[in-house]
Amino acid sequence: MRFRHPDGSTVHLAYCTNVHPAETLDGVLAQLRDHCEPVRRRLGRDRLGIGLWLAKDAARALVTDPAALRGLRCELERRGLEVVTLNGFPYEGFGAEEVKYRVYTPDWADPERLEHTAALARVLAGLLPEDVTEGSISTLPLAWRTAYDDERAETARTALRTLAERLDALEELTGRSIRVALEPESGCVVETTRDAIAPLTAVGHDRIGICVDTCHLATSFEDPGTALDDLARAGVPVVKSQLSAALHAEQPHLPEVREALAAFAERRFLHQTRTATAAGLRGTDDLDEALAGDALPDAGPWRSHFHVPLHAAPAAPLTSTLPVLTSALTRLVGGPHPLTRHLEVETYTWQALPPELRPRGRAQLADGIAAELTLARDLLTDLGLKELP
To answer: Is the peptide bond prior to 317 cis by the omega test (within 30 degrees of 0)?
Structure first.
């Protein structure tokens, strides 16, 4: 979906396909047919933006076979779909029964992360619509926080500088400008937007910036205005933003609240949980850890890294951090010029929701994704952006 900003620039809205498990190119093509096109039709649109997730095998198939890349591009056009952004965070196995810490490997100190991201950039350059010259790729925020010493930190910075050089060369070759965005996430080396400033300043290249995920922003209790002001002062570009909402519990000390939270503690994904205290942010790696005894102070609200559907907050006594999303979006695109032109709805946890909230089949999932995109569209038009055909 495209929108005209009052300054005349185009803002792109997509939804991320990491909600649909696929490890191979055939699986990606099936996603377009079974999920993406039905969402487009529900929205009554001739064109729908999708943020593709390409696992390592799918990416390698596309980057090594020009015919396969041309075939994917033709399939996108045939189904009324377009791609300006990729989710390069998960490497493989994101649809496995248990993902947890595996999603953070390989990290940026591993050469495979550089090679995978460079491959994604070449693929994206070949998928961009004819009238679009800028693409974006979100990636993990350097590494999970453990086993990350000064040597690995310097290796990661060197890899990012090498990537920037390759992206420069790619633009010279194709005329397409691809940028990569570190996506701060709780528990990682770069947990907050402020944590991103030092390493990105050290890399020192405007092709490497930040992806503001509004669920992650909220989980860390960051104020959107302060975070974006800090990035602007440091000269760190907001390459893209993922529109998502975290799980919020206002009174976690109450038994009924803990019981409600326990329904969201599941085995597939990691749900880092945080609370703000006078001494600073406190947290656990997962929601079940927070619920175990007194592992986490409960005098103030808890927020958990669980991407809940934007249009359907959990029932009381829980809610979502949608207000953080709306506040961030206002700052991102509601000013005289957009801070980023790539927006992506990223709710990948539909099948991890409590059983009674999960979609039953493809049709209900498509309905839910379309409802999220409708909400995002309404927020954008309320900010003065005009939806384009």
So the answer is: yes
Would you list the DSSP string of 154-188? HHHHHHHHHHHHHHHHHHHHHS-EEEEEE---TTB
Annotate 85-95 with b (16+ C-beta within 10 A) or e (fewer): bbbbbbbbbbb
The pLDDT value given to residue 293:
83
Q: Return d(Cα 198, Cα 215) in angstroms, integer.
A: 22
How far is residue 116's CA from residue 140's CA, in Å, rounded to a whole number? 12
* Torsion sign, CA atoms 234, 240, 244, 246: negative
Q: Which amino acid is at 29?
A: L
What are the angstrom distances between the C-alpha of 325 and each of 143, 340, 342, 343? 25, 15, 15, 12
CA 211 to each of CA 5, 34, 316, 382: distance values in angstroms, whole numbers, following the listed order: 20, 28, 31, 23
Residue 21 has pLDDT above 90, yes or no: no
pLDDT 10s digits, 46-105: 999 999 999 999 999 999 999 999 999 999 999 999 999 999 999 999 999 999 999 999
Question: What pLDDT score was predicted for residue 197?
Answer: 98
Phi, psi for residue 15 in degrees, rounded to 5 = -120, 145
- Measured CA to CA, the distance from residue 347 to residue 368 in angstroms comes to 10
**What are the structure tokens assigned to 168, written together?**
């420069």
